Amino acid sequence: MESKNHHHSGTAARRAAAEDTPAPRVLIVTAVAAEREAVLRGLNGSRRFEVIAAGAGPAAAAAGTAAALAAGSYGCVVSAGIGGGFPGRAPVGSLVVASEMLDAALGAETPEGFRSAAELGFGSVSVPAPGAAVQALAAALAAAGLTVSTAPVLTVSTATGTAGTAAALAARHPEAAAEAMEGHGVAVAAQALGIAALELRAISNPVGPRDRAAWKINEALDALTAAAAILREVL
Predict the structure, then answer these.
(1) Among 23, 94, 150, 177, which is least packed, fewest CB within 10 Å?
(2) Long-range contact set of residues 161-165: C-beta below 8 Å, sequence gap at least 24
(3) Where are the beta strands (DSSP E) in the chain?
(4) Residue 20 pLDDT more than 90?
């Protein structure tokens, strides 16, 4: 009888200890201040999250992520911001949770067309996101009434601005739903330190001919805020 009670009290102690253990901190990396502010609004003061604006493009994103990860302790990193959606795959105002962060520009031009660094044998161009976390986040966003898709997100250094480039990218990456400029950089920095990375994009414009006046930036930032509130619950 005594040993049974001891067993129960030991289980209770372990359960209490687990509940007291704080969830791992999460680093969220945006490019610009407006994205950072949109995310912070959604997080509503949660101290588990650190949100930085590391700058635009994969190099600034990777450097900022690596510096932040070296200075703190984090269980997960999220690249978050607005982006372009491929028509028919990610409509303006919707959200995309990346299944992988893929550098669409790293490679070489050849007489037969573009070949990726992976095809040429000098490095990976993709970092997969952890599937369970991707599915949990996408399901929670959908349950909150937000329009969300799960697909590869392309990282580019030059935002697409013509129908020709958009068609070439869509042909090379038929599964991709969106493009942005930081995800792969964030993911490479996280991967180097053995930390899981996710990418979350709110779609402000279609990938294709550049029509800045038609971009729905405020709507996309509002979607990012709504998504950040769900991130707080899921992560």
Answers:
(1) 23
(2) 161/208, 161/209, 161/210, 162/208, 162/209, 162/210, 163/208, 163/209
(3) 26-30, 49-53, 76-85, 95-103, 107-110, 113-116, 126-128, 148-155, 178-180, 196-206
(4) no
d(CA 48, CA 185): 23
Would the pLDDT of 15 be above 60?
A: no
Crossing angle (nearest 10°) for helices 131-143 and 217-234: 120
Backbone angles phi, psi at 48, to 5 degrees: -75, -15
160 with 208: CB under 8 angstroms?
A: yes
Instruction: Note the pLDDT tens digit of each residue in 182-235.
Output: 999 999 999 999 999 999 999 999 999 999 999 999 999 999 999 999 999 999
Instruction: Assess contact for 93 and 224: CB atoms under 8 A.
Output: no
Burial of 109 (0-12, 13-18, 19+ CB in 10 A): exposed
Please provide the average confidence, as pLDDT, over all residues in the chain.
Answer: 93
**Rounded to the nearest 5 degrees, what angle is found at the Cα of 195, between the Cα atoms of 190 and 199?**
60
**Under a CB-based contact definition with an 8 Å cutoff, are residues 39 and 225 in contact?**
yes
Question: How many Cα atoms sit within 13 Å of 192 on the Cβ side?
Answer: 12
